[in-house]
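thread: overnight batch results

M.L. [08:02]
morning all. the overnight job finished for the chain we discussed friday. pasting input first so we're all looking at the same thing
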Amino acid sequence: MIAVIQRASSAQLHIEEKLHASIGNGFVILLGIHVDDTPADVTYIAGKIHGLRIFSDAEGKMNLALAQVNGEILLVSQFTLHADTRKGNRPSYLAAARPEQAIPLYEQMIHQLSEMMGGPIQTGVFGADMQVSLCNDGPVTIIIDSKNPAI
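M.L. [08:03]
and the structure it wrote out:
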């Protein structure tokens, strides 16, 4: 499982030209679910997201977690994070989990992050054509890969 976390001062998600979700200060999280992912990957990624200290403290040092700044989450499923570009110019997405496997894991992530944050989070719609706009604050972008924790 791959999560691309962008620290944002604001973000909006539109579906069919209609505003579906928006946040102020917080994280925009693009989540790619791999064919080998399990509920343990969800737990690992959710824990890392919740504990991630990338907001500035009074001294300007990135030392505060999302909950400490009353931040919000916009979670978006994105199968293209598992694109294989090694051969040719057309990416292969065979490593991305099919909907029957990915949807329950995506829903588990929504549930775990909501519980950790003490309330609902904003989400996209699995499989929908979405337009996401954000103001990446910093810019700060962090990648977490449950299969390669060194990244």
